[in-house]
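Hi R.,

As promised on Friday, here is the backbone we talked about, encoded as structure tokens. Could you run it through your design pipeline when you get a chance and send me back a sequence?
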């Protein structure tokens, strides 16, 4: 299938290249980043052997749509989106924290709460909550951005005490985070979805703060379906999620959780095609738009040509 597993481009004025789990990032003239969202898929910190056609396009187009829809709240890093799988933007000096915001007690916060903790990242939580309950108000639970290993929880107080972010900048990041989450919640509601929690990353050029990376994609956010949410909570049933949880579930059911000695189950063409279809469903549910598969030309040729044309205009 015509999927992007890896790239080895060499662009005019290219000054760097970084291959992440999912993204290939090219640095141009030390001013711009060309971020290509490949069709690689990872779970349990492992990149699976087969790429998923259109997955990169799904993630890139969702992020592009929501970055555009929030540009009135905070300027973002994007300069252009020359191809469905590519975003070109300005290089920013990233803040060394990720701004995680939660409207519901889910995921990591729910696990901490179940373990008896009533403070998450310095934020107090009331007694009597159960998993997936709506919180009295959204809470910000930042994490440090680890160069190696996993990100770790950190409180606002500790961020300021360690001087990781200045008081002035951190207060601005909190304002942006709350405003972005409110906008994301509003957009999700129109699609019959609940934006449960998400994370935002910010950077700076000079004195200007920019929103960077991706936002409101199934890789960086958790969504529930609105319909049936209250009934499922009342009956202590799991919530219906819109995320890549279905991939993790398939792996777990086939004996793989990324642990030593475990082998990734065989990804047949049928399994790859079914995962691809689910990602397209995610796109259409989140955006309310019909997914359009690019026609014809070899995918790598298409991407390379689009990037070269866009770079020529910078």
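Update: got your reply. Pasting your designed sequence below so it's all in one thread:
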């Amino acid at each position: 299938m015509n999927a992007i597993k890896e790239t080895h481009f060499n662009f005019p004025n290219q000054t760097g290249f970084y291959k992440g789990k999912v993204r290939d990032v090219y640095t141009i003239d030390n001013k711009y980043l060309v971020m290509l969202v490949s069709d690689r898929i990872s779970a349990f910190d492992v990149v699976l052997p087969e790429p998923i056609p259109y997955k990169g396009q799904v993630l890139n187009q969702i992020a592009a749509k929501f970055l555009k829809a929030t540009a009135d709240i905070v300027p973002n890093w994007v300069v252009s989106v020359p191809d469905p799988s590519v975003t070109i933007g300005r290089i920013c000096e990233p803040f060394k924290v990720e701004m995680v915001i939660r409207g519901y007690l889910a995921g990591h916060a729910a696990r901490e709460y179940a373990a008896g903790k009533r403070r998450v990242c310095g934020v107090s939580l009331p007694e009597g909550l159960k998993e997936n309950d709506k919180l009295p108000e959204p809470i910000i639970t930042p994490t440090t951005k680890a160069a190696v290993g996993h990100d770790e929880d950190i409180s606002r107080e500790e961020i300021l005490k360690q001087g990781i972010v200045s008081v002035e900048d951190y207060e601005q990041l909190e304002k942006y985070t709350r405003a972005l989450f409110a906008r994301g919640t509003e957009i999700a509601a129109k699609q019959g979805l609940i934006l449960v929690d998400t994370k935002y990353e910010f950077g700076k050029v000079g004195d200007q703060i920019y929103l960077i990376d991706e936002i409101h994609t199934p890789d960086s956010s958790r969504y529930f379906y609105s319909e049936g949410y209250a009934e499922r909570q009342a009956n202590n049933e799991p919530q219906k999620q819109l995320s890549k949880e279905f991939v993790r579930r398939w792996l777990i059911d086939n004996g793989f959780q990324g642990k030593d000695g475990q082998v990734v189950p065989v990804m047949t063409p049928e399994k790859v095609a079914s995962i691809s279809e689910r990602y397209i469903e995610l796109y259409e549910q989140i955006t309310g738009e019909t997914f359009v598969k690019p026609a014809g030309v070899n995918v790598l040729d298409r991407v390379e040509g689009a990037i070269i044309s866009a770079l020529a205009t910078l």
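One thing I noticed while checking it: The mean pLDDT is 94.

Thanks again,
M.
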